[in-house]
Amino acid sequence: MPKAAPPDAFANTPEPPYYAVIFTSQRRDADEDFYHEIAAKMAELALKQPGCLGAESARDANGFGLTVSYFSSLEAIKLWRDHAEHQPAQNLGRETFYRHYELRIARVERAYSWSELD
Amino acid sequence: MPKAAPPDAFANTPEPPYYAVIFTSQRRDADEDFYHEIAAKMAELALKQPGCLGAESARDANGFGLTVSYFSSLEAIKLWRDHAEHQPAQNLGRETFYRHYELRIARVERAYSWSELD
C-alpha cells in the first residue's frame, strides 16, 4: 500500500452547517476507461459549481464506492443535479456504470478533524 | 474487478430523518493485519448498538477510505462514541492506524435508491 492518497483527498470544508451528498454505489464490471473519463470530468465540473465546498471519494477492489460531496446549501445541490453536463452523466450512470446506488442528502451539523501532525 | 461487493455492502436504512457519521481517513502504511482485525471487530460491534441503522465503507489502494454509519439519533451516536470497547479502538486509530481523519455528523433529510433490477 502506498503511503498516502493525494494531499487534496480530504475536502477542506468550512465550519458547519453545510450539506453533504452521500453517494454509495456498486459499479458494473464493464466500461472501465469510459467510466473513469466521465467520473473525472464530473468531479472536476462539480468542484467548479457555485456552493460546492469539496468532495471525498473511495472505491474498493470490488467496485463498491462512496463519494461524499459538500455544498453550502440545498439550492446549490439542486443546481448541480440539474446542470446541463451533469444530466447526461447521470443517465450514463443508470444505463451503463452502476448496478445499484443510494443517494442521501444530509445537513452537516458538527465536524472534527485529526491529524498526526497536530 | 469482481462483479460486486457483498450484498450487505449497502445499508438498508429507513425513511429519513436519521443521522450519518461520515468518517474519512488516510491509513498509515503499517499494521495491516492488526488494523483489519480491529476494524472488523468495531464494525460488528457498531451494528449491534441500539439505534445503529447500518454502515457503508470503502477504502482504495492508497489507503484512503470513507465509512458512513447511520444512527437513529444523536444520543445513539454519543453512546457508541463512549462505548467501553470503542474507546480503546479510537485511541489505536490515532496512535497507530491513521495519519489523518475527518469526522462529520450530519442529519439525513432525503434519500433516493436506484437499482438496475427495479
Molecular structure report:
The structure is a homodimer of 118-residue chains. With 118 residues, chain A is α+β, with helices and mostly antiparallel strands. In chain A, 31% of the residues lie in helices and 37% in strands. Chain A is built from three helices and four strands; from the N terminus they run βαββααβ. In chain A, a hairpin with a 4-residue loop joins strand 2 and strand 3 (64-71). The first copy, chain A, is globular, with a radius of gyration of 15 Å. The model of chain A has no long low-confidence stretch (mean pLDDT 94).
What is this entry, summarized?
By secondary structure, chain A is of the alpha+beta class. Chain A has 3 helices and 4 strands; from the N terminus they run βαββααβ.
Overview features:
alpha+beta, 4 strands, four-stranded antiparallel β-sheet, 118 residues, homodimer
Order of helices and strands of chain A: EHEEHHE
Strand content of chain A: 35-45%
Using DSSP, what is the number of strands of chain A? Answer: 4
- Specify the helix fraction band of chain A: 25-40%
